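hey can u run this one w/ NA7 bound, need the structure tokens asap thx
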Amino acid sequence: MKIGWIGLGNMGIPMAGNLLAAGYEVKVWNRTPNKAEPLLARGAALAGSLAELAAECDIVFTMVSDDEAVKAVYTGPEGLLASGARGTLAVDMSTVSPETSRFVAEQCRQAGFRFLDAPVSGSVGPAKEGKLVIMVGGDESDFAQVKPLLDKLGKLALHLGPNGAGTSAKLAINLLLGITVQGAAETLLFARSMGIPTEQMLTIIAESAVGTPLIRGKEASILADDYPAAFALKHMAKDLRLAREEGVSTPLAESVAACYRAALEDGLGDLDVMAILRFLDRK
Ligand code: NA7
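ok here u go:
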């Protein structure tokens, strides 16, 4: 079985790397080809075009930034579906709107491809460790075919229903992510304003009932005030925008969506989501 991997950003590199490490033959494509170098050094092959990848691979994964990128990769003039290949199983692991997942699924069906939406919960750390949580929409038989590969990428792969169900679940879990990260940031700033040092407050959070591995994993970043992207703030802002477009209008959803959008407009988009702390601190 030959695997294709499209999208070699922060997530795509470690995920495709796990398939290589598991012994699969992997051919990769990235809009900016030189980002493929670390994987080529580990035995991956480089596709010269999306058409080449579609023609040669049985299963093709996509892990690109947003709705526009997914549409470009699938339905663009030089996209996967213009290749004329048939029968390929495409698995989109990007976070996009359920509407985009259903649209791309239908385009795939018309072109003779099969399609699963399979976005993930977890950032670069879990991606490297193969411990992502994968939420899948599409045909159950396609899910069964790809499940052994998903098991190399994640600790849980769950089939949730037809196309769009995976991306719907992803928008829901990322609402909780956005609220949790901003909640921790606001807590730390409030504590600091009363003279409680951040380091000690982080210990209190970690040991309390509301402590989460998420915030524990951000401790070094927070203390160093240095936010290299494990999960970029711009992607959080995108996901909360998509959640609002899906109809969520509850108080915290409205509030965090506005806050991450403002932080994005303030130039913090390429930093980690935890940089919301820096944004709130500046206010
Ligand atoms: P990154 O690190 O921002 O990487 C984004 C990837 O998407 C990268 O490979 C980009 O290629 C690619 N991209 C972006 N726009 C396009 C277009 N128009 N055409 C083709 N390829 C494109 O994101 P992450 O890896 O952190 O996250 C990926 C997804 O998981 C995202 O949906 C998150 O919300 C969750 P480039 O290298 O810039 O040429």
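The two ends are 53 Å apart (CA to CA). anyway lmk if its weird
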